[in-house]
Amino acid sequence: MKVLVLGAGQLARMMALAGAPLGIQVHAYDVRSHTVVHPVTLQDYQQDLAAGINDCDVITAEFEHIPNDILVESQASGKFLPGERAIRVGGDRRLEKQLLDRVDVANAKYKVLATKADLQQATTEIGLPLVLKSALEGYDGKGQWRLKSADDIDTVWAEIETFLAESSANQAMVAEEWVPFDREVSVIGVRNRAGDVSVYPITQNHHENGVLSLSYAPAASAELQQQAVDAFSKIATELDYVGVLAIEFFDVKGTLLVNELAPRVHNSGHWTQQGADVCQFENHLRAVCDLPLGSTELVRPTAMVNILGCDYVDSAAHALAGVHLHWYGKDKRAGRKMGHINVAASDQEQLLAQLNRLLALLPEGDFPGLKDASQKLA
Ligand code: ATP
Ligand code: MG
Ligand code: MG
């Protein structure tokens, strides 16, 4: 089997690494250079999209902000999973919200904004504070504003108008209620062509400046897991979804509210490489290649630490049992996702102890907020 991934970043790379032992070849279409590459070696195959599509059995995606012409061409091949619709829903907060309402899955109150008057109205309909998010192209907290007071409407809207003017014609803003969450969690699940669904244990996530910094599992009661599984099943079934799908939630006093969807493998599922029987990358490939799904059972408690903007970790980390480094082979840039570290242990107490040993090796400056976040594991 040959799988072509739209996007040639670390997610395609980890799919390729997971596919190798199964004899699944993964190629990646780099949407910036318009060429097909090997996602690990970055060898250039000198193929354009049409040749890449012709040459593969299945097309999939590692991100949801795919240019329209590429989406349409991929869909027309009949090889694209989870397919154009799921990617469009994941890439446009308006469609995402409509879908959540249609399948009756709880999410934060919202209003789509076109004008300043709409924003004014949102402050009375929804209340303050509000989070204002761009409908398209949002990731890592980019394209977001916080409105705390009605006095700031003019200033905030002026910034948004500049942003909208520089954005695509189809861009808009979505105002969302500020959710007073107790914590953020996500669920990663997989659905195959026959409609079978398998869901990993809920993961708890900590963000620093809008970017994921720490995830760990297990992190929820059976009751909360059931809420997540129900939401996953409703959404995946409605989309006739094939592949791995991630759902981010706010946990508000034991009730899950959906924050957003990611129609792909997800950063908060990287722990499955060491903590689950079959990792999210392999399960995604199994689903899109129409192989039986692998177990999503947790085999040992596991945490994941993102390596952001730095390209060095003390090699003593390798000496810690259960600690696994995953570098993405990228050039260093401030804030860039350069790799991650999984820490797995036989039980939660051991996990916390091992995570603390790892954190002692990581400079606070490169890993801000991690020590505080790890306290919450206890
Ligand atoms: P991602 O990289 O996860 O795709 P994104 O840019 O799509 O990020 P969101 O997940 O919508 O952004 O928001 C980023 C973070 O901002 C959330 O993880 C959460 O911490 C905070 N946040 C977003 N929306 C709300 C909200 N309505 N109430 C409270 N906090 C919020
Ligand atoms: Mg997002
Ligand atoms: Mg998010």
TrEMBL record:
<comment type="function">
    <text>Catalyzes the ATP-dependent conversion of 5-aminoimidazole ribonucleotide (AIR) and HCO(3)- to N5-carboxyaminoimidazole ribonucleotide (N5-CAIR).</text>
</comment>
<feature type="binding site">
    <location>
        <begin position="176"/>
        <end position="179"/>
    </location>
    <ligand>
        <name>ATP</name>
    </ligand>
</feature>
<dbReference type="GO" id="GO:0034028">
    <property type="term" value="F:5-(carboxyamino)imidazole ribonucleotide synthase activity"/>
</dbReference>
<feature type="binding site">
    <location>
        <begin position="138"/>
        <end position="144"/>
    </location>
    <ligand>
        <name>ATP</name>
    </ligand>
</feature>
<keyword id="KW-0658">Purine biosynthesis</keyword>
<dbReference type="Pfam" id="PF22660">
    <property type="entry name" value="RS_preATP-grasp-like"/>
</dbReference>
<protein>
    <recommendedName>
        <fullName>N5-carboxyaminoimidazole ribonucleotide synthase</fullName>
        <ecNumber>6.3.4.18</ecNumber>
    </recommendedName>
</protein>
<feature type="domain" description="ATP-grasp">
    <location>
        <begin position="97"/>
        <end position="289"/>
    </location>
</feature>
<feature type="signal peptide">
    <location>
        <begin position="1"/>
        <end position="18"/>
    </location>
</feature>
<comment type="function">
    <text>Catalyzes the ATP-dependent conversion of 5-aminoimidazole ribonucleotide (AIR) and HCO(3)(-) to N5-carboxyaminoimidazole ribonucleotide (N5-CAIR).</text>
</comment>
<comment type="subunit">
    <text>Homodimer.</text>
</comment>
<dbReference type="InterPro" id="IPR005875">
    <property type="entry name" value="PurK"/>
</dbReference>
<dbReference type="InterPro" id="IPR040686">
    <property type="entry name" value="PurK_C"/>
</dbReference>
<feature type="binding site">
    <location>
        <position position="207"/>
    </location>
    <ligand>
        <name>ATP</name>
    </ligand>
</feature>
<dbReference type="GO" id="GO:0046872">
    <property type="term" value="F:metal ion binding"/>
</dbReference>
<dbReference type="Pfam" id="PF02222">
    <property type="entry name" value="ATP-grasp"/>
</dbReference>
<dbReference type="InterPro" id="IPR054350">
    <property type="entry name" value="PurT/PurK_preATP-grasp"/>
</dbReference>
<dbReference type="Pfam" id="PF17769">
    <property type="entry name" value="PurK_C"/>
</dbReference>
<dbReference type="GO" id="GO:0004638">
    <property type="term" value="F:phosphoribosylaminoimidazole carboxylase activity"/>
</dbReference>
<feature type="binding site">
    <location>
        <position position="133"/>
    </location>
    <ligand>
        <name>ATP</name>
    </ligand>
</feature>
<dbReference type="InterPro" id="IPR011761">
    <property type="entry name" value="ATP-grasp"/>
</dbReference>
<dbReference type="GO" id="GO:0005524">
    <property type="term" value="F:ATP binding"/>
</dbReference>
<keyword id="KW-0067">ATP-binding</keyword>
<dbReference type="GO" id="GO:0006189">
    <property type="term" value="P:'de novo' IMP biosynthetic process"/>
</dbReference>
<comment type="similarity">
    <text>Belongs to the PurK/PurT family.</text>
</comment>
<dbReference type="InterPro" id="IPR016185">
    <property type="entry name" value="PreATP-grasp_dom_sf"/>
</dbReference>
<dbReference type="InterPro" id="IPR013815">
    <property type="entry name" value="ATP_grasp_subdomain_1"/>
</dbReference>
<keyword id="KW-0547">Nucleotide-binding</keyword>
<dbReference type="GO" id="GO:0005829">
    <property type="term" value="C:cytosol"/>
</dbReference>
<feature type="binding site">
    <location>
        <position position="93"/>
    </location>
    <ligand>
        <name>ATP</name>
    </ligand>
</feature>
<keyword id="KW-0436">Ligase</keyword>
<feature type="binding site">
    <location>
        <position position="184"/>
    </location>
    <ligand>
        <name>ATP</name>
    </ligand>
</feature>
<feature type="binding site">
    <location>
        <begin position="259"/>
        <end position="260"/>
    </location>
    <ligand>
        <name>ATP</name>
    </ligand>
</feature>
<dbReference type="InterPro" id="IPR011054">
    <property type="entry name" value="Rudment_hybrid_motif"/>
</dbReference>
<keyword id="KW-0732">Signal</keyword>
<comment type="pathway">
    <text>Purine metabolism; IMP biosynthesis via de novo pathway; 5-amino-1-(5-phospho-D-ribosyl)imidazole-4-carboxylate from 5-amino-1-(5-phospho-D-ribosyl)imidazole (N5-CAIR route): step 1/2.</text>
</comment>
<dbReference type="InterPro" id="IPR003135">
    <property type="entry name" value="ATP-grasp_carboxylate-amine"/>
</dbReference>
